[in-house]
Amino acid sequence: MQIFLDTANIEEIRQAAELGVIDGVTTNPSLIAKEKRDFIATIREICEIVDGPISAEVISLNADEMVAEGRKLAEIHENVVVKVPFTRDGLKATYALSQDDIDVNMTLIFSPNQALLAAKAGARYISPFAGRLDDIGQDGIAIASQCQDIISSYDYDTEIIAASIRHTQHVFLCAQEGIDIATIPFKVLLQMMKHPLTDIGIEQFLNDWKNANK
After folding, report:
1. In contact, 38 and 50? CB cutoff 8 Å
2. Catalytic residues
3. Per-residue pLDDT tens digits for 156-189
4. What is the pTM for the complete model shown?
């Protein structure tokens, strides 16, 4: 399973990249606004740090404007993936951009039917929001897995990105279900590294070494 980092924080991205476990990065307007940085400059810098798909989202909601904006985003770097929300206009824009050989990450997916339409429109990546589905009492990972099963049944050049990941159990379930990609916050990546028995083991090794060399 690929792991993308869901952030626009440059320092978090640098630290994650140094670990050698990050395959790409997803951003959105909210994440970039939180950093109070220039949008284009931020995307360009992320592309210099991580050699993988970097999702940058359009702001427009009109199909023609999405296409124009998406083309400009794609010019930033060859690794940029244009992130488009799932709407009727979003489908139109995704189809048009895919015809230009521009990779699209269709976001705000909440059902397998939406995922199927996104794939047929030419989306390279499809992002079901697991955590937000959990918030309304549905099983977000199960729905992401259903999206994965449907897409995998046909010859689409499309991968599923489980998004809105809230905790390490979400990541484990994504891996267990065979979902292509999970995009996770930096704090969840840090939590994945931790286990109390690892800490106890290290402490025991150090104590044994210290006692043996008194």
Report:
1. no
2. 83
3. 999 999 999 999 999 999 999 999 999 999 999 9
4. 0.93
